[in-house]
């Protein structure tokens, strides 16, 4: 790298101790080295049009040359990728290198997976016990895995996929209110079937137990002994006259209506139970979206959701 100074007359030339210019051999610009004033080297790195700029000639502005370069690029032909030839247009877009890479990587992954499966099949011992044998059976020389029982009924799947938790809960509450209203209208809920409660009679001797007659003890007729909701005494039956329908055809019609009401009540109870199970399963699936560590305690069934035990986290 050579060092030069300005060629002005001695009367106009600045003293040599003020600054010195170092000119690169390949015209990379000017760099001020040394100097008594602060900022003497701030104009380093400028690119003059030629070396004569250091000798007093004015160089064209750098911004103007940059503008010309940008304007020249506007006339360049835009880059276009080669398209599919017209004869092969039916095959779709022309495959580029990046498309080939994706296809090749996918092919290599599949081939490596197949090789791993073939290696595992060759290394497998036919006499060794595997736990899958407990839930598989051999049919026509082919092992068939036993399918587990459905944990969710098709009706539950349809409701869980199409309805929201709030809607299911609203329908369940509506069914519960209808059940309560039917129960209040039907007073013969305990007419059929064995009663859970018992009426105990106490006696002093075994002879009294053997001679005990419940109809005589309750002072009623034997036909009304099983009626715990309305059991009139003999005196009441003698004093009062029968009220209501006594025609056999009309009584049969009333009995059929009462049976229909009980069937409707049974259906509503089953529907309310189904809605309750569906709501629990939807809530369980929402809870599983939490990233908290969890362990399954009980599997899911048609009558109840799966039970998970979540790791305890201290709430701040």
UniProtKB/TrEMBL annotation:
<dbReference type="GO" id="GO:0006364">
    <property type="term" value="P:rRNA processing"/>
</dbReference>
<feature type="compositionally biased region" description="Basic residues">
    <location>
        <begin position="70"/>
        <end position="80"/>
    </location>
</feature>
<dbReference type="Pfam" id="PF03998">
    <property type="entry name" value="Utp11"/>
</dbReference>
<protein>
    <recommendedName>
        <fullName>Probable U3 small nucleolar RNA-associated protein 11</fullName>
    </recommendedName>
</protein>
<dbReference type="GO" id="GO:0032040">
    <property type="term" value="C:small-subunit processome"/>
</dbReference>
<keyword id="KW-0539">Nucleus</keyword>
<dbReference type="InterPro" id="IPR007144">
    <property type="entry name" value="SSU_processome_Utp11"/>
</dbReference>
<comment type="similarity">
    <text>Belongs to the UTP11 family.</text>
</comment>
<keyword id="KW-0698">rRNA processing</keyword>
<feature type="region of interest" description="Disordered">
    <location>
        <begin position="68"/>
        <end position="90"/>
    </location>
</feature>
